[in-house]
Every structure is written in C-alpha cells, then in structure tokens.
Amino acid sequence: MAGQRLSFKEMCARFDVTPRTLRYYEYIELLSPAREGRARFYGPREVARMTLILRGRRFGFSLEEVRQWLLLYDQKGTREQYRVWVEHAGRQLAELERQRDDLDAAIADLRETIAAALAGGSTPG
Questions:
Q1: What distance in Å separates the CA atoms of residue 1 and residue 16, rounded to the nearest whole number?
Q2: Binning pLDDT at 50, 70 and 90, where does residue 85 land?
Q3: pLDDT value at position 1?
Q4: pLDDT higher than threshold 80 for residue 73
Q5: pLDDT by residue (tens digit) across 59-69?
Q6: How far is CA 79 from CA 53, 69, 91, in A?
Q7: pTM value?
Q8: How far apart are alpha carbons 4 and 77 in whole angstroms?
Q9: Same domain, 48 and 80
Q10: 61: which of 39, 65, 106, 116 fits an S-S bond (Cβ 3.0–4.6 Å)?
Q11: Could you tell me the strand order of the sheet in which 39-42 lies?
Q12: How many domains does the chain have?
C-alpha cells in the first residue's frame, strides 16, 4: 500500500461504507484526503485512520472517543495513544460484558415466560 492512493469510490468500496459516511468522516475531520480539483485521494495514513475508526465503532466507541484517540497519536505519538486505548478498551469491555449479562437475563426471562404461557395456556400479563 506504500505510496498507493485510493479514489473516493475505491475508499468506499474497500471499507464497505456509503459515500455519505465517508464525507461525514471528512466533515468532522477524522479523515483529510488529498484534493486535486474536486477529486479526493486517500493515502496510507487515511487508510490506517479509517481502519481505526471502523474498529473503534465496531467496539462501541463514540466518534468523539475515536477522534480523541486519533488526536493523541498526532500530539503525543504511538505509546501514549496505545496506553489510552488500552484504558478505554478495558472500560468498554466491562460495559459490553454488562450489556451481554443484561441480554442473557432478558432472554432467560422471556423463555420462562413463553414456557409458562404454553404450559398453562394463559397469556403473560
């Protein structure tokens, strides 16, 4: 990928995002493609940033959290960025596990309710 540039359309296809999403990430300054006239081109830096943005979103981080994390790299480098990411990731993991536990409890309760309704012929209420 060194030196390779992707067009706007290629960037959308590579990351399976809509043009609207890509334009929005530019608008909120998460990405800064090179411009030649009206054309936009994305180099290795923008591809790496997009990878991190989408990974952060998949893990449940807000775009503002992703922005702060990307800014850390620009301001303080990789080590500090990594330290902060690990800290945030630990908190996010705990939150996702809490949500999973809540879902597991809701699923178990719903199964019991269905089983009781089928066994007794009554409607839940």
A1: 18
A2: confident
A3: 46
A4: no
A5: 999 999 899 88
A6: 18, 12, 19
A7: 0.74
A8: 24
A9: no
A10: 65
A11: 6-7, 39-42, 34-36
A12: 2
**How long a stretch of residues is the chain?**
125
CA distance 55 to 47: 12
Domain carrying residue 42:
1-58
Cβ neighbours around 46 below 10 Å, total: 21
Distances in whole angstroms, Cα of residue 60 to Cα of each of 44, 55, 56, 88, 116: 24, 9, 6, 11, 36
- Output the six-digit token pair for 9: 């359309």
Give the CATH number, domain containing residue 21: 1.10.1660.10
Please state, for a pLDDT cut of 70, what percent of the chain lies above it.
93
97 backbone dihedrals φ, ψ, rounded to 5°: -65, -40
Say whether both 72 and 54 belong to one domain.
Answer: no
